[in-house]
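FAQ
Q: What does a multi-component entry look like?
A: The components come first, one per line:
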Amino acid sequence: MKEKELFVDFKSHQAIYYVEKEDNSYEPIISGSQLSHDYLDDFYYKKNNLEGELREKIINNEISPIYYYMLLQEIGIGDLASRVGVSKRILKKHFKPDYFNKLSLHTLKKYATIFNVNITSFLQLIKDE
Amino acid sequence: MTLEEKEQLKKDIKNLIIEKLKITHVTANQVPDDALLFGKDNPLGLDSIDAIEIVLALKEKYDVRLADQNLVREILVSVNTITDFLEKELEKVEK
Amino acid sequence: MNKIIDFKHKMAAHCETGTLTSLLNHDGIEISESLVFGIANGIFFGYIESSNFPFPTIIVRSRPGQIRENIIKRLNVKFEKYKFKNIEKGEAKLDELIDKGIPTAVQVDFFYMDYMPDWQRVHINIHFIIIIGKKENKYIISDSYYSTITELDKIMMRKARWAGGYMAPKGFLYYSKNAPKTLDLTKPIIKGIKKACWSMLNIPIPFVGIKGIYKFAEKVKEWPSLARDTEHLSGEIMKINIFLEDQGTGGGGFRYMYATFLQQASNILQNSDLKDMSKRMMENGDEWRNISYFVAKIGKNRDLGADRLEELSLMIRKRGDEEKAFFNDLRKMV
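Then the predicted structure of the entire assembly, as tokens:
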């Protein structure tokens, strides 16, 4: 693709792309991301909606904060199970509020590190009405 | 191939899988011969990307031709199926 | 103890090739990222369904680590590598290398790179950055995906280097042990091209290489049944754009960078056929980029019915056809 066609002016998200220069040579240039430039608002729209839906489900006692964060941070079940050190079968139990409420502080701390949140945010989610 | 040689081959295959896929939570001795390698809740937790690694590692170590993708699906079921396949291939070479 | 190494920061298309290239350049070995990529036959394709990912995923490059291994073999260069179960030992080793003035590449979970915009930060354990200094409780970093030298505090670095899960970094680090030299690239380029053709055409697994592209074309039509709802499907369809353009590929799913490599190869090998192939690969990259634009548009518009997915499937299928012909032709030229 020619440099002129590919280039996007978007400083918040830049990357290297390989393009065809005026002299027909192929070279790397810095350009903004076309996707972020054109569709970031749609990304946030979807994310905020998903957050809202999942929060509802927590309040309705349908899911636990573990499921909430796993979905929002887009972690695969196998990957998350491996990170926390349990089988996929056990992890699925942690998605249920009854099971979640019995988790040890040790396990909650592990999840908090993985999701890079404070343990209090788990409690905050359950508490919110 | 003698029974002893076959048992050694099984051990080698288990070690190859564990080494190539850098599995740390199980040792070779703990891998059952007939356990499913892939699929839900298998003991080794292998997935499709791991399948690529195993195929390439087997090719490299045993110099076997794995040309047919349907064949690959039949071979990569368990340590037993891999061993049986390699036994046949290695005996071909000896002849 | 504060320390900063005199290191030339550069952005690169891809973190693995970017870190390798920067470290080699730092040690006086002149080579570009695109040559590293091509010589190491980084170009690839795979359609992956795995519980390690939240949804089916496409991969457009070879297995992480393979580019480094291939460069070591083919260019006869040296990298010293370490892995650490013990966090203290892993941190001590990094600090020791920085104190000695040795820029060090570390493997990290991209999610913890808090200098990156939040919408880009996902859990990917195979990100590579170069540590070039430390200042109080922070590390100074050259990250190929960031425009300037930046910093990360030690606690985040610890989380990033010892994140668990799929392809966990386990404190992995490596550094260059090379002296300035001029490389003879003829044989490495030929080897890289041959291996690229082999990996796209000959691996007998139904979801990699050309077969992988066809598998993707077939399976994308089933994505509605895998998604929670239209919003989820929209997000996953638009992610195809991210995989092809925004997750460090140089554009067109690495195909633009590969075209650049082929152009350089044609000059080095004095092989004019390769120049034609570089143009063909650039055009192939354009078609992948058109797919990227297409999925962004249909995703945004929630225009995701069977007809539209059939259209997408056909566009992908055509890439399979073109790349099959391409790699079959390419292998005859070296």
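Q: Is there any commentary attached?
A: Sometimes. For this entry: Residues 43 and 93 of chain A are 30 Å apart (CA to CA).
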